Amino acid sequence: MAERSFKKEVEQLRIGAGETFRGEGILGITKALLENGVGYVGGYQGAPISHLMDVLADAEELMAELGIRFEANANEASAAAMLAASVHYPIRGAVTFKAPVGTNVASDALANLASGGVTGGALIIVGEDYGEGSSIMQERSHPYAMKSQIWLLDPRPNLPSITQAVRHGFELSEASNTPVMLMVRIRSCHVHGAFEAKDNVPPPLTVKEALSNPQRRTDRIVLPPYSYIHEQEKVNERLPNALAYIREHGLNEFFGPKHGKVGIAMQGGMYNGVVRALQRLGLADLHGESDIPLYVMNVGYPIVEDEFLEFCEGKESVLVVEEGAPDYIEQALRAALHKAGKPTQLMGKGPFPMAGELTGRVMFEGIEGFLREVAPEMLRAQNRAPNEPQEGQEIPDLSKTVPVRPPGFCTGCPERPIFAAMKLVEEEKGKHQISADIGCHLFSINAPFEIGGTTMGYGLGPASNGAFDGGGEKRPIAIVGDGGFWHNGLTSGIGNQVFNKSDGVTIVVDNYYSAATGGQDILSSRADNPTKDTQHPITKAVEGMGVKWVRQIDRTYDVNKMRDTLKEALETDTEGPKVIVASSECMLNRQRRERPLRAKAIKEGRRVERPKFGVDEDVCTGDHACMRLSGCPSLTLKMPDDPLRDDPIAHIDQSCVGCGNCGEVADAAVLCPSFYEARIVHNPGGLERWLDRMRKSVIGWFQSRRAAKRLVWEEPA
Amino acid sequence: MNQAAPILETGSRDARLDQIVKLAVMAVGGQGGGVLNGWIVRLAERNGYVAQATSVAGVAQRTGATIYYVEMMPDTGKQPVFALAPAEGDVDILIAAEMMEAGRAIMRGFVTPDRTLLIASTHRALAVSEKIVPGSGIADAAEVRRAAEKAAKDFIAFDMDRMAEEAGTVISASLFGALAGSGALPFDVESYRETIRESGRGVEASLRAFEAAREAAEARRQETEPAEAPKPPEAKVAGPKALVGEWERLVARADALPGEEAQRLARAGLKKVVDYQDLAYGAAYMDRVEAAAARDARAGGAEQGHAFTANAAKYLANAMAYDDIIRVADLKTRAPRTARIDKEMRKGDEHLIRVTEYVHPGAAEFVSLMPAGLGRWVEARPKVWRGIDRLVNRGRRIRSDRVLGFLMFYTLGGLRRWRRRLLRHQVEEAHWTEWLEAAEARLPRDYALAVETLKARRLIKGYSDTHKRGLNKYDKVMSGIALVEGREDAADWANRLIQAALKDPEGKALEDALQTVRSFTTAGAA
């Protein structure tokens, strides 16, 4: 069950010509795929295209009606490999994943696909996870397209442009027998907009039909001598065909006057940012009509050199707006000008910083700086000679006050106690070499746990301890999530450890979902999924790989057990890799699942217990040791109403879901007796009520007996 | 080549651009910023506006800081070009769903005096880095408030989280209400309500929070501190007449102390120790405080505002009411506690409450409960000690709402009667006596240092290992204070040592500070 359901929105995918489609970018892309006769789709989830996978999964029924095959691939490599169907068959296929990490994983398949070329249109929709909110290393997908010769579309970030790019992507792919990458940035995936819909088109040849009539062409297979021929074909046939298609169909766009002293060339994705800066400079109107000629490169690769040279004709200076480093496009444009012997001056990085996101301010300052240098007469007086705003007072610097707020474990997260246990082991046995992995568990790197070293890639946690797996005085520990485990960790990590007789310990953090990407089901998910086969235990897979020492923990909140099991793994004499599978359901998903059921049960009068933790204010001494083993959002601080105390004390707010971590940690770490668990019982039975009354009267008798003999302070209500 | 006629007069902006409303929401992941974002878009569309909203999903939603962004303007039939992200200096309305997020917005330049209305909820969602400091690491919201007053064109701030909670919903509803009440958007209030109704879930609660916040924002409320409950009057005492009489005599002694602060703290301290033990204990406390006050007076305390007496009253009460099992058990078995839990759980008459206590006593706690002689005998015999530890040291979960579990705590609480004869008491009494004497000894020579010596007591807190660590830090600080004694800036250094000790649990900052102290105090000797 994914974090967000698109069931309702997906209904809109059925609309036809003449109607207007409204929704998020990813939904628009899905609609465009259906309108363009796609035969099969697949991919692997990850921000920013996680929701695209969720949309596809929710649209599975509709796609089945049209004869379209949907596959939730094991990883990006298998997604890219699926495009093999378009090599010999004239079937359009599309896959999606996060980039550039997904492109990295998929690069083997992508390179082979690009070498042999395709018959049916092959579209790789990459969600470029770059800039603010990104969770990965900051790189570009651009060089992947260049090195394998895959065309790269980078449309303007609005729904009509993005959906048109889907159509052109397929057609361009078919016209040049080359796979096409459609790049969508974080914000354009989630931008709300509208476009004119068309009718959905079933694929002319379905994959089912293709199965009945298998085809092959030896010259499309990447084997000598054909691989040498492919290389020639790429530059001599496919590239010219692609350039012709791009020119002919006007994929790149021109805005503003044709001529001018200066011009701006930009990646399609940068268009809105550029226009906003021009608007602020008084050089473009509301609708983007610009005083400066604009060349919008909706195709990032290949560069259409002659088109660009025409744009430069008569211009003294042209600015290239390109996000991220290195500046591949600027270099290519520079080379084109140089080869053609053109005098136009080209600027890019210079007015713009060498690296980093082109945020509103950077864009404004970059373009303003460029104009101030080459065409100051276009700027308003105040921009020409900018004065620092002097009016008003200085705004105080808050950088020392405002705390950083990195992402962390959610309230009640079952991974928290795993790392609390690891922290306790660390206190007892010292620090260990720990390799981390991609996934929610990576948040253990931050305070309060500060556990885990490197992260080398999804599912590569165990593999990145390879150098240490020969053993030593202390064993290395690797962490991998269930998502990463099935993505490739089972083979690249566990299998490899078995084969190399590793001495290391691996903790598989199993939260029943691919949780960090939005709670998609995976092989070991416990849920029944009508279209997928789930409930395959990780322990079985690990044992099947040949691991002898395997422990399953079914309740990660049991910090004592977690700690003892980890200690056992670090101490056991058993040879070979040690694997602990620590399983408890992702709390976000669990709450989403249970809350409505609970509310319903309470309403129907059934007995329901709801737990929540609390802190005895007078017992808590305010040393915050519990915080250092938790970091739970619901475990927070408050100032006690007592003039004798200096420090804030622990307090559990209403968001507590009663996971138990507080109590377990207090117990395992022997912290303090201030935590209690209170369970509120809804709809208790008659006997239970009677028993409660009896207990209350006995307890009450004792309480008043003692209270009568001492002074009691009546707290004012 | 000829330049084509410009679209706009040189030097002018398209005036229609001013019709674009740029609104950013800065929230903490999990606060429901997405819901608010969706409401704002639908509100705009309902009022004949075109709107574009974007957000950054992904891991930023997992309790991290996150931004939502909306641009909107009246629909003219032709699509304007909207930006996808807020630009510094170019935001009209900034909604901060938490006080430090308001600070972050200011830091990032999204709040500027020429245009930005800042709507901020003053409550705090503490960041992990604020919570893990052993002392107080909570960021200063007042600083953010001061910056906001300067940075924003208009500033609306009150606790919208509490408002939502009181209405039984989440903060998005009260933020939406504050937006409505601010009047920053040219939409009538009913269309906001319609938007909420249309969303269909928890409508009633959402509307309640919406209205409360709308009214507050209309009144341009600026409760820049999270609403603090008015200081309650001091609690009234009740009990057997003889006891009350004796109590009043003790209070009179506290009130006879010099200085209001000292009186206030002594009254609070008195209540703490009497509640902890009995009136005789309170009398002992007063004896000690009065002795400290007498020395204070001799050392010229009047000029110092009787700081020594006040601090002695404060920290001696804490020292005498040391945290032992008896106290924990006593506190957990009182009737008002049951009432407090009921309230916190929002228990109705139709509900029952089950309470489980999480306790984990070890041999140390157990032995400290023994009579002093026996306790010392055990302490001298590691084997016996280990045997006891094996027997008692494990986590226990006790249902205190059941009779047996309750009686266990009740019995332990009843040991109060013998407390003064137990080992722990002797240890503690010796410790605080030594501490007080050390402070008093410094009084005639260095008043400020004597006060700091009292304050070092703050470092001792917690149970078992944490308590041990606290004691350890206390010892280190006291040894550091001994090193600087006699210097002009001794008190200043003592204060620095105490603050350093509160910075991190391992005592790294303290170790560094001590290193510095040693470098200038023992350098000559080496």
Describe it for me?
The complex is a heterodimer of chains A (717) and B (526). By secondary structure, chain A is an alpha/beta fold. Chain A has 4 domains: 15-248, Thiamin diphosphate (ThDP)-binding fold, Pyr/PP domains (Rossmann fold, 3-Layer(aba) Sandwich), CATH 3.40.50; 254-384, Rossmann fold; 416-589, 3-Layer(aba) Sandwich (Rossmann fold); 608-708, 2-Layer Sandwich (Alpha-Beta Plaits), CATH 3.30.70. Chain A contains 24 helices and 24 strands. A 7-stranded mixed sheet of chain A has the order 3-2-4-5-7-6-12, with helices on both faces. Chain A has a 5-stranded mixed sheet with strand order 9-11-10-13-14, with helices on both faces. Chain A has a 5-stranded parallel sheet with strand order 15-16-17-19-18, with helices on both faces. In chain A, helix 21 links the parallel strand 18 (549-553) and strand 19 (578-583). In chain A, 55% of the residues are buried. The mean pLDDT of chain A is 94. Chain B has 4 domains: 19-218, Pyruvate-ferredoxin oxidoreductase, PFOR, domain III (Pyruvate-ferredoxin Oxidoreductase, domain 3, 3-Layer(aba) Sandwich); 231-321, no CATH class; 335-424, no CATH class; 445-526. Chain B has helices at residues 33-46, 99-107, 128-131, 141-151, 160-167, 171-182, 189-199, 203-218, 241-255, 260-276, 279-298, 307-320, 325-332, 335-344, 363-368, 372-379, 382-392, 403-414, 423-442, 447-455, 464-484, 490-501, 508-521; strands at 21-28, 49-55, 65-74, 93-96, 117-121, 154-158, 236-238, 352-359, 396-399. In chain B, the strands form 2 sheets. In chain B, strands 2-3-1-4-5-6 form a 6-stranded mixed sheet, sandwiched between helices. In chain B, strands 8-9 form a two-stranded antiparallel ribbon. In chain B, helix 11 runs antiparallel to helix 12 (307-320). Chain B starts with 20 loop residues before the first strand and ends in a 5-residue tail after the last helix. Chains A and B meet through helix 10, helix 13, helix 16, strand 20 and strand 21 of A and strand 2, strand 3, helix 2, helix 3 and helix 4 of B.
